[in-house]
Write a structure and sequence with these properties.
Number of strands: 5
Oligomer: single chain
Strand content: 25-35%
Number of helices: 4
Order of helices and strands: EHEHEHEEH
Shape: globular
Length: 104
Protein backbone atom coordinates (compact mmCIF):
# COMPACT_ATOMS: atom_id res chain seq x y z
CA UNK A 1 0.00 0.00 0.00
CA UNK A 2 1.25 3.46 -0.87
CA UNK A 3 2.45 5.62 1.99
CA UNK A 4 0.27 8.62 2.80
CA UNK A 5 2.54 11.62 2.39
CA UNK A 6 1.53 14.97 3.84
CA UNK A 7 2.98 18.24 5.06
CA UNK A 8 3.68 16.72 8.48
CA UNK A 9 5.79 13.74 7.33
CA UNK A 10 7.39 14.49 3.95
CA UNK A 11 10.67 15.88 5.31
CA UNK A 12 11.19 12.80 7.48
CA UNK A 13 10.49 10.51 4.50
CA UNK A 14 12.88 12.41 2.22
CA UNK A 15 15.60 12.10 4.88
CA UNK A 16 15.06 8.33 5.26
CA UNK A 17 17.95 7.45 2.95
CA UNK A 18 15.62 5.52 0.63
CA UNK A 19 14.50 6.63 -2.81
CA UNK A 20 11.11 8.35 -2.60
CA UNK A 21 8.41 8.63 -5.27
CA UNK A 22 5.60 11.07 -4.55
CA UNK A 23 2.37 10.93 -6.55
CA UNK A 24 0.59 14.29 -6.32
CA UNK A 25 -3.12 13.61 -6.78
CA UNK A 26 -6.69 14.58 -5.84
CA UNK A 27 -9.82 12.41 -5.47
CA UNK A 28 -11.70 14.32 -8.21
CA UNK A 29 -8.90 13.81 -10.77
CA UNK A 30 -9.79 11.06 -13.27
CA UNK A 31 -6.23 10.54 -14.59
CA UNK A 32 -5.00 10.37 -10.97
CA UNK A 33 -7.49 7.63 -10.20
CA UNK A 34 -6.48 5.72 -13.33
CA UNK A 35 -2.85 5.36 -12.16
CA UNK A 36 -3.69 4.65 -8.50
CA UNK A 37 -3.72 0.84 -8.95
CA UNK A 38 -0.23 1.00 -10.49
CA UNK A 39 1.10 3.19 -7.67
CA UNK A 40 -0.46 0.93 -5.03
CA UNK A 41 0.95 -2.23 -6.63
CA UNK A 42 4.47 -0.83 -7.01
CA UNK A 43 4.43 0.46 -3.42
CA UNK A 44 4.09 -3.18 -2.38
CA UNK A 45 6.62 -4.49 -4.91
CA UNK A 46 9.29 -2.00 -3.78
CA UNK A 47 8.48 -2.11 -0.06
CA UNK A 48 11.67 -1.90 1.98
CA UNK A 49 13.70 -0.62 -1.00
CA UNK A 50 11.86 2.60 -1.85
CA UNK A 51 9.07 4.73 -0.43
CA UNK A 52 6.21 5.19 -2.86
CA UNK A 53 3.49 7.46 -1.62
CA UNK A 54 0.56 9.65 -2.47
CA UNK A 55 0.19 13.34 -1.60
CA UNK A 56 -3.38 14.67 -1.72
CA UNK A 57 -3.16 18.25 -3.02
CA UNK A 58 -6.64 19.02 -1.66
CA UNK A 59 -5.66 18.14 1.92
CA UNK A 60 -2.12 19.56 2.03
CA UNK A 61 -0.41 22.35 0.11
CA UNK A 62 3.12 23.05 1.37
CA UNK A 63 4.93 20.38 -0.64
CA UNK A 64 2.94 21.15 -3.78
CA UNK A 65 3.83 24.82 -3.51
CA UNK A 66 7.49 24.05 -2.76
CA UNK A 67 7.82 21.98 -5.95
CA UNK A 68 5.55 24.12 -8.14
CA UNK A 69 2.88 21.49 -8.76
CA UNK A 70 0.43 23.02 -11.21
CA UNK A 71 -0.96 19.90 -12.89
CA UNK A 72 -1.95 16.53 -11.52
CA UNK A 73 -1.10 13.76 -11.64
CA UNK A 74 2.54 14.69 -11.16
CA UNK A 75 5.18 12.34 -9.82
CA UNK A 76 8.42 13.55 -8.33
CA UNK A 77 11.34 11.19 -7.81
CA UNK A 78 13.87 11.76 -5.01
CA UNK A 79 17.23 10.18 -4.34
CA UNK A 80 19.29 11.08 -1.27
CA UNK A 81 16.60 13.63 -0.38
CA UNK A 82 16.99 15.57 -3.64
CA UNK A 83 14.62 15.73 -6.59
CA UNK A 84 16.14 13.88 -9.55
CA UNK A 85 13.17 13.46 -11.90
CA UNK A 86 9.63 14.68 -12.48
CA UNK A 87 6.79 13.28 -14.57
CA UNK A 88 3.56 15.17 -15.33
CA UNK A 89 0.50 13.25 -16.50
CA UNK A 90 -0.40 9.60 -16.53
CA UNK A 91 2.33 6.99 -16.78
CA UNK A 92 2.43 3.33 -17.75
CA UNK A 93 3.48 0.68 -15.28
CA UNK A 94 6.60 -0.16 -17.32
CA UNK A 95 7.68 3.48 -17.51
CA UNK A 96 7.18 3.93 -13.78
CA UNK A 97 9.12 0.74 -13.01
CA UNK A 98 12.01 2.02 -15.16
CA UNK A 99 12.06 5.34 -13.30
CA UNK A 100 11.99 3.64 -9.89
CA UNK A 101 14.68 1.14 -10.89
CA UNK A 102 16.89 4.07 -11.95
CA UNK A 103 16.72 5.35 -8.37
CA UNK A 104 17.88 2.07 -6.82
Amino acid sequence: MATVINDANYKELLESGKPVVIDFWAPWCGPCRSITPIVEELATVYEGRAIIGKYNVDEDTDLGVEYGIRNIPTMIFFKDGKMVDKHVGTITRDALVAKIDALL
